[in-house]
Amino acid sequence: MKKITLSIDGMTCSACSNGLEKYLNKQEGILNATVNLVLSTASITYDEKKVTKTNLDTFIKKAGFQSLGEFKEMKVEKKNKKEKILLLFFTILALFFLYISMGPMLHIKMIPFFDMHAHPKNYVSILLILTLFFLFYGRDILKNGYKNLIHKTPNMDTLVGIGVLTSFFYSLYNLYLFFQGNSAMLMHLYFESSAIVLYFVKLGRVIDYYSKDKTKRAIQKLVEITPDIAYVKRGKTIEKVTLDEIKKGDILVCSAGEKIAVDGEIVKGNAHFDESFITGESKPIFKEKGQKVIAGSLNYDGYLEYQAEKIGKESTISEIVRFVIEASNTKAPISKIADKVSGIFVPIVLILAFVTFLVSIFLGKGIDASLITFVTILVVACPCSLGLATPLAIVVSEGVCASHGILIKKSEILEIAQKTTTVVFDKTGTLTYGTLKIAHIKNFGHRKNDEILTYVGSLEGKTTHPIGKAFVEYLENKKIKPFEVQEFQNKAGYGIMGKVKNHTLIVGNAKLLQKYKIKNTYQQEEQELLQEKNSILYVVIDQKIEALIGVNDIVRKESKELIDALHKKGIRTIMLTGDHEQTAMQIANFLHIEEVYASVLPKEKEKLIQKLKEEGQFVLMCGDGINDSIALTSADIGLSISSGVDVAMDVADVLLTNNDLKSILQLFLISKRTMRVIKQNLFWAFFYNSLMLPIAMGLLTPIGITINPMLASLAMVFSSLTVVLNTLKLRRIKNGRIS
Length: 739
Prior knowledge:
Elements: E1 2-9, H1 14-25, E2 30-36, E3 41-46, H2 53-62, E4 66-70, H3 81-102, H4 120-137, H5 139-150, H6 156-179, H7 191-223, E5 229-234, E6 237-242, E7 251-254, E8 263-269, E9 271-274, H8 276-279, E10 285-287, E11 292-293, E12 298-299, E13 304-310, H9 316-328, H10 335-362, H11 366-380, H12 384-389, H13 391-403, E14 406-408, H14 413-416, E15 422-425, H15 427-431, E16 432-443, H16 449-460, H17 466-478, E17 485-491, E18 495-500, E19 503-508, H18 510-515, H19 523-530, E20 535-541, E21 544-555, H20 559-568, E22 572-576, H21 581-591, E23 595-597, H22 602-614, E24 619-623, H23 629-634, E25 637-641, H24 646-651, E26 654-656, H25 663-696, H26 709-727, E27 733-734, E28 737-738
Parallel strand pairs: 15-22, 15-24, 22-23, 24-25, 25-26
Antiparallel strand pairs: 1-3, 1-4, 2-3, 5-6, 5-7, 7-13, 8-11, 8-13, 9-10, 9-12, 14-26, 16-21, 17-18, 18-19, 19-20, 20-21, 27-28
Helix pairs in contact: 1-10, 3-4, 3-7, 4-6, 4-7, 5-6, 6-7, 6-11, 7-13, 7-26, 9-13, 10-11, 11-25, 11-26, 13-25, 16-17, 25-26
């Protein structure tokens, strides 16, 4: 089994994408195919023993489209100057066409040379010439319409093509009769309908192009974050290279004002970095030797050398782009509504148009009026807005999520996240930071905190104990050089001691004070720290207690705010941890989590998730470790933070690149807003067709409401524009609200 994403050319509406998707899924060897109209891609899972990439290209060609090869990167095609000039030219030409053909009806003063009464032959000749211009301009629409009709996948272009060509050839026949001497045929020419309908459809395509282009550009910005060139250190020389020339293990240099070229690890130097494009954190982040750097992050103020670790498709940016594209190529359940409607809508409209035409003839309305009705129905029913309603909203929302540090791997998450009734949290590494930190320091002496911690860190650096690592990391983060230690001793069960700067330093628990007969007058302070489940360290310098330090796995600063916010929303919260019950309850009580399951194994976590689902709960599981991977998979939504292990991140449906748990609230908000916009879009699309089709069929003619092909094509443009503008509201979501 193999999966590939191909770029597709020739899709113009939901009937196109839906028809291609159905066609591909019918082919032997293709296990699943999903077509994305907005990004013009097809994500195909196939049996490589039965199907080759060449076969896939052939299938796509037979369906009436063209495969542009494997999707490698987001390419945003820029409308060149020639195309813009062409659109402007035909806009002017369309206005001129309307002036000539409709001027007399509107009592506008006409130029004598073009006047239909003064110079009828000039008038009809210029109408024909102008129409041929517009037929050439819209030749892609006519070609695609014919092609899709032949392949039994009629689409919007098919409707327009049939309507335009019917109107054109009927007018051409009447023009022939006019030149044969039948002057009455002058009033039965409908060239303007063919020309102006094509113009408005092309104008609508431009609007659709720019709306889709905005969503593509959001992804393209991620691709463009990384620089085009880098500087590799080779011996004593520094070479300027392209990103393709970089190999794993290369040592690269980055000076102030430059961007990191590939993911790597700093081997020399330090600097402040802007990583807001990944983390959402606007403040500069300080990094030094041994720490990781991300491709695209901006070096504010230092020189450093770093070793290349992840290049090309392995880089963080490439992973993000891949997630966004793959999510865009999955379909939310609600999109199936539009797909089903689009799949049967075009054939129904074709039948409806022909039936209405025949009924109109039968009722004696004449071929002219019947033809106008026929063309109007075909034009007004084009399902453009219906095709854009769901995919455009999904892609825009995914871009919004990415900008907030939320990576969505499946688009259905945007639909189902708002249904969440229960959020289950792992404790260590999720609600807490997962590593021991210096939580509190009670200073009883004259020395400053940093000096005391330097003494302790220097001594703890001689141990391998987890508590010792907390102090070592503190010194490294503060860029404090440890003092020299002499006569180091490890007193098992008590603590450690040694000589630091000619001072006798003792660090350990209360038993150590008793052992060395040091008077302890700080039992109350010790109890205060113990109540918060801290590991306690007394710091004794020259037989005097200088400080009391609490070391703990610190609760994430945003955890409490998140839990309180979830409770206000009526969402149930549960802690699920393999840790001891006493420790788990302490954290749970602090966070106001009432349901706690402690000392549970990975399989037991999964069983609890399944039990919650059987109770009718919609479960979001938030975890970061290997032991969470089964639970993440079994939950309705699995969410992991980017500081978690690779397994957890791989199986999760949502990844928080900013490591901020409050982004869960943002996900719920975006999900809710997205569904609201999609429903609004579908309403307007269905409402438009429900309203316009009866008018186009002439059912409201008795009360004076009518429409012609030109107005129908203009209404079609406004329908798509309504959907686009309504969708773009999603881009205004900022910091948990609509800006």
